Structure formats: C-alpha cells, structure tokens
Amino acid sequence: MTEQPLLNEIKALIKSSGPMPVWRYMESCLMHPRYGYYLSRDPLGREGDFTTAPEVSQMFGELLGLWTASVWKQMGSPQFLRLIEIGPGRGTMMADALRALRVLPPLYQGLSIDLVEVNPVLRERQQATLSGVRNNIAWHDSIDDVPEGPSIILANEYFDVLPIHQMVKRESGWHERVVEIDPNGKLQFGAAAEPTPRFDVLLPPLVRAAPVGAVFEWRPDTEIMKLATRVRDQDGAALIIDYGHLRSDAGDTFQAIARHTFTDPLKAPGQADVTAHVDFQALARAAEDVGARVHGPVTQGDFLKRVGIDTRAAALMQKATPEVATDISVALKRLTDTGRSGMGAMFKVLGISEPRLTALAGLSDLEQAGGR
What we know:
Rossmann fold, 13 helices, transferase
C-alpha cells in the first residue's frame, strides 16, 4: 500500500474541524506546501498524467505567437511589450510562440517575457526549454508580481485548476458540498447541514431552475478580475484557453486524472490532477464588470482555424517526410476536431482587452469589418 501522507492529514483535519468544503480539499490536493500535486512534479506528457495542446503540436504555440503579433499591431505597435504566460507548463508554448515572433524584429526585440509559475520542477524545465532565448525572462509566483506595462497575457489550461466551490440543491436551499469521512474511514462527498443564505439570488435563471439534487460550481472572480483590470489600465489583451462550458449551468465536473485516465478525485489526494470545467460565461461577466472588453468565447477548433492552422499545417506537411506529415495531420485533428478524441469543441477561447480594441483575431466574426 502506497504511503498517503496528504490523505492522512486531510482526514485528521476533518476529524478535528468537521467536514471540509470541496474548494479547500481541491486547494490542498494541488497546492499543499509539501504534498501538493502542482508543487512537486512535472505532470505533463506521455510519462506524466495529461497532455496539453502545446505538447500536441508546435502549431499551437506558433499561432498564439502570430495572434500576439496581430494584437500588438492593433495596440499601435508599442516599443516595449510584456508577454506574460500564466502556468507555462514546460515552456513549450512560449518557445514556439517566440520562434514565430522572430520574423517581426520590431516586436521581438522589444519583448520582455514574464512567466507566472509556482512549481519549482516546472521552472527548471522552462529555463531549459527557453535557454536559447535572448530576451529578458523573469519568473513570478503571481500575476501581482509582474511589473507594469503594456501586456499580452496567455493562459492555457490555467483556470481549470483554480479551486471551485460546489453547491448542492436541496428542498431547503443550496448547501455547500463538503468532503467527509464515511463509516469505513474513507472520504466521501456530503453537504453542509445548513443552506447558504440567499445563495440563489445571484444565480443565472437556468441554474436557479435546476432540480433538487443538482450540483452548481463556481469560482471566485479574483483571478479573472486581476487580468481584466491589468489590460484595462495598462493597455493590452489576455487570451484564455481552457475546457469548459459557454454558459453557466448546473453539473458536477470535479474530476481527477492520473496516467491519462480518469480516477476518483477522493482516492489519492495530491497524487492526481484534480480539475473542474471553466464557466466561460462567469469569466466574461466578471471581466465586463470591471470595464474590460470581452471577445468570444469561441471553440478552440474555430479559433485555430480562423487564425490559420490549416494553412500552417499544409506548409509544414509540404516540407515533411510522409511519417512526419502523418503526425502533423493527426495533431491537427486532435487540436481542432469536435469528436470525443478532439479538443476542438471541449476547449473554448476567450479574449479580454482594454476597451479600445474592438476586435481580436480569431474571436470575432466581424474582425475584418472592425468590431463586434
């Protein structure tokens, strides 16, 4: 039997303080200072627990680089630009984006790279991946630590790991969902004894009408408001790519993945990636509330096609061996297809900008006509 120090610690906490809200359990699993999943390992790739879009193909990062260039031009081509990535994985996406940006020396030479990363193992991987980059690169624990200045912010698969609150609808109202210990000593889900007062007042009508037994998930708006306030005040835009739903709705999406397979999120805390789908309607609403402009969301498949992934794939395949051309074709399908094995429909893309940027490439049907 594998040692499970975090499981033992969580059980001890529940025994001493009572049932633990789902958000606190999720936060412990991912960010516990000693045993947290995201502070202790490189979870990416074939040997890890999951694969992200930049690891599927270089085309993903390259197109985000070209998207960055198009936004920079819309901003009036400032001499200095911060390119910020939140949760940069192994640095793969940034390396691919920078390679694409080299063709535009006025932008490339004025770039400062800021990476927001708390995992020391991944910081080392990023340093190795970006060792050939001559630009100024700095690492930060939080977006709050990134110095001011016009910025383009990229956040791929970042919001899905921010802890969620789960609420369960009962006859008496909405109760906070908790993690407790069952009679056999195992973790199980439960609900707080008392409903959360007036919780339904702020709910979208669709959620308010959910049946008894329904689960509703929400995240605090803190992170999205930081990004939106930054681009509103300092010029620039943010691009958020993640899996989730376009409109707020009831549903339990709390899940765990280990070795590329779904597993019970209560089984081995700290040893699997626990995530939940992103509510893009809630993100958009919070960004608009602070006065930023929202673009999209659209599906990842639509976004990548609009910014030219088919053309890029064709150009790469033309120069490739038959084997490599097949790999490129498979990667293209994985990134854009809408079926079960594709990321094209499950993943969504949302743009946030300062109000004067009326359209962002790939995110508006009217972008060529100059606005939403």
